[in-house]
Specification:
Chain lengths: 222, 253, 213
């Protein structure tokens, strides 16, 4: 092998790469928050008594789940300005991630609410609590606990998916690494290092969720 | 059957011509009955006879379509206020316990008094501790439901319902999901409650309990009341063939 | 958009299907090996495959494609973009399918292994005749779910420079300046490809859930 690995451009670019990591965190966390809002709103519509609302949600979920994120983000990138929203690539990417994650969140949250037995609801009502109180004090926590593992892996996936936002040059780790790569032509070195960065990021994400889970859902079940 | 106004006056619960359908299936057929204050009723009958449906209608876990249900003077209708008022006065114990898994035993008992009655935390706690004491499980207050045996869970469920200081207690097959060795501890708790004068309607197949505690045994089949009598009479001299057949099946197994 | 452009998109679609098929078939073989190694009871193999799965599930597919693409060139393979992409997707699929199947192998009750051992079945027969048929059946919905994910994942090959459906869409869009029409059609093509699979997977899941009751 006559090729000499040279990590100098990576080391020189380290400050930029770390800023890129922050960009990725920003994309992921804002995307997640938007996804949760869309997910909760979507579940309310998805389980509402109005047929049109239910079908609209089913259609939304299936369209998002059955098309690539790259196509979604391109579509949004061109569609938002036509809708009168002139946004920078980074907010556009956040909206795309939120919509994508939201569709998955709808299905996950719906499954969680359904996983709580009817008896829990009835016991709450029989004790004289209102429906909203039953949801808030009895259903919510066990439902969140039930969906937390799938929510965690979905959000880690969303974090990894955010690298695709480089295609519209949003500010995040992959876009930064592509710039360093095209300046230095040290492609393998750059991408190898950045892959390791992503591994650390998703590991941190997982720890964060596990910490949260241990803190808030620490009650025994059969 | 007509209700003399005298009985209506001191009746805690009255049902008049109550009917209920699940779609095309008629679950309750023209049910009329009344329960006096302090009276203990045992409801029995084959599975699918409508006995659980009947008591679930009393606190409106199931809506009924026809007839009138009146609890302590409040008529159960579609308006949410009446439903709330009745549920605060009627406690219920379920076959599957339905304790809340994410709350401790103590928190299970404190939740409704605080949220539905607006009790202060300290008051709810002292009430809960007193009632856990009464069902002889005070030392488990800090544990979670999953850490208790079935019999202990059911006793907690009874304490939880009592924390609302209900005027009536409904029991929906409270011992059916229990291992045999735990049935007695739950029945003893219920007997204690009966001795203190609680108005009770119990759906159960525990005929020993019925003999010892019930003022009246009501037998249902196919969504209708077939016969009702004091236990001595009910067991020694049942009037209907259906009743004899049912008693034959559950007493000589 | 004219017929020529549409035909060009269809050519892209063809490559998307071919790429997905190659990656899925190779990924199934790789995934089976990973799943067996992961449940082999040999500490070293189990640790190595766990690390492999962890790396591929913990990093973006796009980075995996970049690293494989430039890594293969580095060690002296002069290869086409499509070989590099197919290799990357296969490694990716092997990790995900390996993890899905590990889970389902471990979900087969212990008694099955014990009964097979008591009948003096050796490892190969125990796996082939007893454990895997049960495990793979249970994992079918998840496997189909991953196939959909893989098909969508092939769109990232466009960033590495392989002309499949998404890149074809990009090129047409730059040519005729109707990005919404073009990406709408591209999205619809992916949808028509994936949706039947999704429906089939959900159908199987319901059927299994019903028979488990």
């Amino acid at each position: 092998m006559d090729y000499q690995l040279d990590f100098t451009p990576v080391i020189d670019g380290l400050p930029d790469l770390l800023l890129g990591c922050l960009g990725t965190f920003l994309l992921a966390i804002c995307g997640m928050l938007l996804a949760i809002v869309i997910g909760i709103g979507g579940v309310i519509l998805r389980t509402s008594p109005y047929k049109a609302a239910r079908w609209a949600m089913i259609g939304f979920v299936e369209v998002i789940r059955n098309t690539p994120f790259l196509v979604q983000i391109f579509f949004l990138y061109f569609a938002l300005p036509l809708a009168g929203l002139r946004l920078d690539p980074t907010p556009t990417a956040i909206i795309a991630l939120g919509i994508n994650g939201g569709a998955y969140a709808i299905e996950i949250i719906r499954g969680g609410v359904q996983s709580i037995s009817k008896g829990q609801m009835e016991a709450g009502l029989a004790l004289g609590l209102h429906k909203a109180q039953v949801f808030r004090f009895i259903i919510l926590k066990p439902a969140l606990r039930a969906i937390f593992p799938s929510l965690t892996s979905q959000f880690v996936l969303l974090t990894l998916t955010s690298s695709v936002a480089s295609a519209i040059s949003a500010y995040e780790l992959t876009a930064v690494s592509q710039r360093i790569e095209s300046d230095s032509f040290r492609s393998f070195e750059v991408y190898f290092t950045v892959t390791a960065f992503y591994l650390v990021i998703s590991w941190l994400m997982m720890r964060l969720f596990a910490f949260f889970s241990a803190r808030y859902f620490a009650y025994p079940v059969k | 059957m007509t209700n003399p106004s005298a009985t209506q006056a001191d009746a805690m619960i009255t049902l008049t011509h109550v009917e209920k359908w699940y779609g095309a299936f008629k679950a309750l057929h023209d049910v009329t009955m009344s329960v006096h204050q302090g009276e203990k009723i045992v409801l029995c009958g084959p599975s699918g006879s409508g006995k659980s449906t009947l008591i679930r209608c009393i606190n409106s876990l199931e809506p009924h379509q026809k007839g009138e249900i009146r609890v302590d003077g409040i008529v159960l209708g579609p308006n949410a206020k009446a439903i709330d008022a009745i549920r605060r006065e009627v406690g219920m114990v379920f076959q599957q316990f339905n304790l809340f898994p994410h709350l401790t035993v103590l928190e299970n008992c404190m939740l409704a008094p605080m949220r539905a009655l607006g009790l202060a935390k300290s008051e709810a706690e002292s009430r809960a501790r007193a009632l856990l004491e009464r069902v002889k499980i005070a030392e488990q207050a800090a544990k979670y439901p999953a850490q208790l045996s079935g019999g202990q869970q059911q006793r907690v469920a009874i304490a939880r319902a009592l924390c609302m200081q209900p005027k009536v207690m409904l029991f929906d097959e409270p011992t059916s999901a229990l291992d045999p060795e735990m049935v007695k501890e739950v029945l003893d708790t219920m007997i204690g409650l009966a001795e203190d004068g609680m108005t009770m309607i119990c759906v159960t197949h525990e005929m020993g309990f019925a003999r010892q505690v019930a003022d009246r045994v009501i037998f249902m089949a196919d969504g209708a009341i077939v016969e009702q009598a004091p236990p001595a009479e009910f067991f020694s001299n049942p009037a209907h063939e259906r009743t004899r057949k049912f008693l034959g099946e559950i007493l000589n197994h | 958009m004219g017929t020529d452009e549409f035909v060009f998109l269809l050519t892209g679609l063809k490559w998307t299907v071919i790429l997905s098929a190659i990656a899925f078939v190779c990924g199934c073989l790789g995934g089976l090996a990973v799943a067996l190694a992961r449940t082999s009871g040999i500490k070293l193999l189990e640790r190595a495959t766990a690390a492999y799965i962890g790396v591929f599930q913990g990093t973006p597919l796009l980075m995996q494609l970049f690293v494989v693409y430039y890594g293969l060139a580095l060690v002296g393979f002069k290869i086409d973009a499509w070989v590099a992409v197919a290799t990357g997707l296969t490694l990716h699929a092997s990790a995900y399918l390996g993890e899905i199947w590990r889970g389902s192998i471990e979900a087969v009750p212990r008694g099955q292994t014990e009964a097979a051992k008591a009948l003096s079945l050796k490892y190969v027969s125990r796996m082939r005749d007893v454990i895997l048929p049960q495990a793979l059946r249970v994992s079918l919905p998840a496997t189909i779910g991953f196939l959909v994910q893989l098909i969508k994942g092939t769109s990232l090959a466009s960033i590495v420079g392989f002309t499949e459906l998404t890149r074809a869409g990009n090129m047409i869009s730059n040519q005729i300046f109707q990005p919404l029409t073009v990406f709408g059609i591209v999205g619809l093509m992916y949808f028509l490809l994936c949706c039947p699979l999704t429906i089939f997977g959900a159908h199987l899941e319901r059927r299994f859930a019903a028979s488990a009751r």
